[in-house]
Amino acid sequence: MGAGHAHKLYRHGHSPVHALPPHTKLAAVFAFVLVVVSTPREAMWAFGGYAVLLGVVAGVARVPAGFLLRRLLIEVPFVAFAVLMPFVAEGERVDVLGMSLSVNGLWGAWNVLAKGTLGVAASVLLAATTDLRELLLGLQRLKLPPLLVQIASFMIRYGDVIADEMRRMRIARESRGFEARGVRHWGVLAKSAGALFIRSYERGERVHLAMVSRGYAGAMPVIDEVTASRTQWSYALTLPGTALVVCLLGWSL
């Protein structure tokens, strides 16, 4: 669990949200997303309330709005899908600006946009206030299957190594005058991909042998024991707890 890589989504800070134990933040975001998904799409005001809650969290975490909005661009493909829904969905139609749109499609587009955007925003806030090593420790603390945590740990640890290997191979090709310009060059790129796979596999074998020689028996040692007090749990669960109240009002009103 010693993966100390800082990812691009992380924003270093010393806010109360940064200081929370990682497993409490993971549980809070998961519960918040469940509440958002459970909210009826007709309760449009409720989604505005969720957005305000996330805005408060971002303010407490000192995450700038620009930082958050730029990271939300990752959901552009889902936005494009939602925009098409009113045109392709069946059912009752309504004229909007001279266009015939499906009522069910409009509701479906709103449902995807609202819930998807809130879920992505919550995830971005989690990533912005928790580095990768802490996320892995949090997953371990929440009793995620150890093998999955180890796989994620190695992906993080050696992702940069493999990317650097790809960069060196590209520089080696270009230094020999190679430049991919069309389909006829795909064979060279395929051979490069195969060589990269073989090198990565061999590296994995060497790493595994080194781990076994040091006593690895299927479980990584726990170096840092992450704990959380009741106060920290209460602080972290304020977000999903408040969201649950909004959700219940959305179903009753």
UniProtKB/TrEMBL annotation:
Specify whether Cell membrane is a keyword of the entry. yes
Q: How does it sit in the membrane?
A: Multi-pass membrane protein
> Which residue ranges run through the membrane?
43-60, 72-89, 109-130, 233-251
* CDD domains, alphabetized: EcfT (cd16914)
InterPro entries referenced in this protein's UniProt entry, alphabetically: ABC/ECF_trnsptr_transmembrane, ECF_CbiQ, ECF_transporter_component
Q: Where in the cell is it found?
A: Cell membrane
Name the UniProt key words of this record, in alphabetical order.
Answer: Cell membrane, Membrane, Transmembrane, Transmembrane helix
Q: Name one Pfam family in it.
A: CbiQ
Q: Which NCBIfam families match?
A: ECF_T_CbiQ
Instruction: Note the PANTHER family from the entry.
Output: SLL0384 PROTEIN
What protein is this chain from? Cobalt ECF transporter T component CbiQ
